[in-house]
Design a protein that fits this description.
The structure holds 3 protein chains of 3 kinds. In chain A, helix 1 (about 5-25) packs antiparallel against helix 2 and helix 2 (about 30-50) runs antiparallel to helix 3 (about 50-75). Chain A is about 75% helix and about 0% strand. By secondary structure, chain A is mainly alpha-helical. Chain B is mainly alpha-helical. Chain B has 3 helices and 1 strand, in the order E-H-H-H. In chain B, helix 1 packs antiparallel against helix 2. The model of chain B has no long low-confidence stretch (mean pLDDT about 85). Chain C is globular. Classes of the chains: A mainly alpha, B mainly alpha, C mainly alpha. The interface between A and B is large, with 90 and 72 residues. Strand 1 (about 120) of chain A pairs antiparallel with strand 1 of chain B.
């Protein structure tokens, strides 16, 4: 087993274990911290895939912003659900069975694809080439300029919507 | 060299764990966490196929990267709006259990 | 000859020697590389942590002199072994765990915080041959690691089971998130000028240090990095002279020591980043032929910047929380956005003329914006009615602060 494979297995196990903790722990703050761990694991998987830009963006956006937001929300709504009461609804058993069945369906289906066992070689992208190609593709009118602009409008709308929804109640009370 | 299948199996496991979390958890923030896990699994898949296509074509594919970036942007927007909604619901109902959010039921 | 070659670039010589040793042992190449990186990371991290001992002593001494005190003077000449004694004291102190802490976040927080500082050292090029990693997205990595620090702060505040720690953690992370915005915008300008996000390329592109091209941008970055580090005058999350402590209030012994180390190391690390981005990093006369000189230049430049930070810490009064947020959202963020947009527009317009012309235009934009913002702030300051504190017969203390808006009157 090469070093890369060892790294992959270690990080994949960390990711899966953390994800398991995220969905199974009763203390929501602990699940949020395990979520950070899972996101870090995914970032290292991205780094192994030579998508270093996405590894850095994963840490920046998911851990630096989304996970912090989730932790804030957990803290603000903390005393509502006690740790003692069960955190899952009645249908967890059937959900588990369904998830396992779906897993086997997915695996059996994609393993029929001939490229399934392709070994990924190192791409050896020199320097900034990947990021440059990505950046020019995003602003190229022949490429993805429209989706990129739409995404920025989406972010702006989310920003305004988030502020509006979160502030609405307080304004009503004051007037 | 790591086979493509390893990434796909990892992504499938992560996606289904996220799906399980989103289906069975009562707390709406926990549901959101499950959704984040699912989005991450999708991104692993997309970037693994990006690597595969770049390797097969011998040139850097940008389609996969753009898809992954859009997923990240959508996740950020979704988390911001969803948490704002959850905080707003919490102010009104003093509860963030998804089953209690039934005041709009006809 | 051999000795001179060794002295010219000792780190690379040692690493070559270790690689040869491993390959003589019959180790596979990738394992040897992995082990080499592991050794390198350990050496870098340990030396950074040991340097902190010196920084703690130097900072206490300098602040002592600035405030007309002697500073540490008991142990060793000029008290130079004071921090070693402190370290020994902290090692043998009893480690008190308060009841009701949340164990995982409580114990993990100091480690996360120190790690988030040390991870920055991986991307700093110390000379043209010695660097941890020539990461092609180093600038994003820099911002991302700052996000990890926020996680550490939140974990400490939550895990301590203390409401004051939690309030302080909220304040500290709000401060860090806010000041990341102008910092990120200003970081984009060196990326733009060198057309690369890797630190090595940014250093290599600096024929003129970027501080001469964008002095105002460098100033904004410097202020934002002080605030991001949570040091005076922005240290209100853990104001030592007013509160007992910040989010680290429930920590004692070695864990408190780790917070302390992270705090002092972060100051030097941000100086290191500043000198890499704006002062030309390892560049200097003869640094390309003799790489070991480059490391000396980098450390010397960083020490100057670090001293500026200590100087500010020793002489400025602390801001209030609303003033701090006002400085960021009403001044630094808009002005850095304007600067960034003007730089994009004009550097693209004059790009055909040549690089020197481009630099000149950017410099003029910087200076113009600096004087404009200075005038605006001054005018705002003149309009304000400032209540005088104290009696008429005695010398009057007058709180004149550029950013304070509401001053309580009588």
């Amino acid at each position: 087993m090469s070093v890369q494979q060892l790294f992959f297995v270690v990080f994949a196990l960390i990711t899966i274990f953390s994800a398991l903790m995220v969905v199974s722990l009763r203390n929501l703050l602990h699940s949020a911290l395990w979520l950070i761990m899972a996101l870090l694991g995914v970032a290292s998987i991205f780094a192994i895939l030579e998508a270093s830009f996405f590894a850095a963006v994963q840490i920046l956006v998911y851990i630096g912003a989304i996970a912090i937001l989730i932790i804030f929300a957990v803290m603000l709504t903390h005393n509502i659900m006690s740790v003692a009461e069960t955190q899952t609804n009645r249908s967890w058993g059937i959900a588990l069975v369904m998830v396992v069945i779906i897993f086997f369906i997915i695996i059996t289906q994609i393993s029929t694809w001939p490229g399934f066992n392709t070994r990924l070689q190192a791409l050896n992208i020199p320097g900034q080439d990947a990021v440059l190609a990505f950046g020019t593709g995003l602003v190229d009118p022949q490429g993805f300029a429209l989706p990129f602009e739409t995404a920025s409008v989406l972010l702006l709308a989310a920003l305004l919507g988030g502020v509006f929804i979160a502030f609405d109640q307080r304004r009503e009370k004051k007037s | 060299m790591i086979p493509l299948s390893w990434y796909l199996i990892l992504a499938a496991i992560l996606f289904l764990l996220g799906l399980y979390g989103a289906m069975v958890r009562k707390n709406s923030i926990a549901i959101l966490m499950g959704v984040e896990l699912m989005l991450n699994a999708v991104n692993i898949n997309i970037l693994a196929f990006w690597h595969y296509h770049s390797q097969v074509n011998g040139a850097i594919e940008i389609n996969g990267m753009v898809f992954a970036a859009i997923v990240v942007i959508a996740a950020a927007a979704e988390a911001a709006v969803a948490l704002a909604i959850i905080i707003s619901v919490f102010r009104n109902n003093k509860s963030i259990v998804a089953a209690d959010m039934n005041t709009l039921k006809g | 000859m051999n000795l001179i070659d060794f002295l010219r670039d000792p780190i690379i010589a040692i690493s070559d020697w270790i690689t040869n040793l491993f390959s003589n042992w019959g180790m596979a190449t990738d394992w040897a590389t992995f082990l080499l990186y592991l050794i390198g990371a350990a050496v870098l991290g340990i030396s950074a942590l040991l340097m902190t001992l010196f920084f703690i002593w130097a900072e206490r001494k300098i602040i002592g002199r600035l405030q007309d005190r002697v500073g540490p003077n008991q142990i060793g000449p000029w008290g130079i072994f004071q921090s070693v004694a402190d370290m020994v004291k902290i090692f043998i102190k009893e480690h008190i765990i308060p009841t009701g802490v949340d164990p995982i976040p409580y114990h993990l927080a100091p480690i996360v915080l120190v790690a988030s500082v040390l991870m920055v050292w991986a991307i700093v090029p110390f000379s043209n041959t010695v660097y941890g990693s020539n990461l092609n997205v180093a600038v994003i990595f820099l911002l991302a690691v700052g996000g990890l620090g926020e996680v550490g702060v939140m974990m400490a505040g939550w895990g301590s089971n203390n409401k004051y720690a939690l309030i302080s953690a909220f304040r500290a992370s709000a401060q860090m998130i806010s000041y990341e915005v102008p910092m990120a915008i200003i970081l984009l300008i060196p990326v733009l000028l060198s057309s690369s996000m890797s630190m090595n390329d940014i250093v290599n592109a600096q024929n003129i240090p970027y501080i001469l091209v964008l002095p105002f941008g460098a100033l904004i970055f410097f202020i934002a990095s002080i605030a991001e580090n949570g040091r005076a005058p922005f240290d209100l999350a853990e104001a030592e002279s007013e509160l007992v402590a910040g989010f680290n209030i429930e920590y004692s012994g070695l864990k408190f020591g780790m917070f302390y180390v992270a705090d002092f190391l972060r100051a030097f690390t941000s100086a290191l980043i500043f000198s890499t981005l704006f002062l030309g990093g390892w560049k200097g006369p003869g640094a390309e032929a003799i790489p070991v000189l480059g490391a000396f230049y980098l450390i010397a430049k960083s020490l100057i910047i670090w001293f500026l930070g200590v100087w500010i810490r020793g002489s400025f009064p602390r801001y209030r929380i609303d003033q701090m947020m006002n400085i960021n959202w009403k001044f630094l963020t808009p002005i850095s956005l304007v600067l960034f947009m003007l730089v994009i527009l004009f550097s693209k317009l004059v790009e055909p003329v040549g690089q020197n012309m481009q630099y000149l235009v950017i410099l003029i934009i910087n200076l113009g914006l600096f004087f404009l913002s200075f005038r605006i702030l001054n005018n705002q300051n003149k309009k304000k009615v400032v209540a005088e504190v104290g009696s008429r017969t005695r010398p009057v203390a007058k709180p004149d602060n550029l950013f304070s808006k509401d001053v309580s009157r009588g």
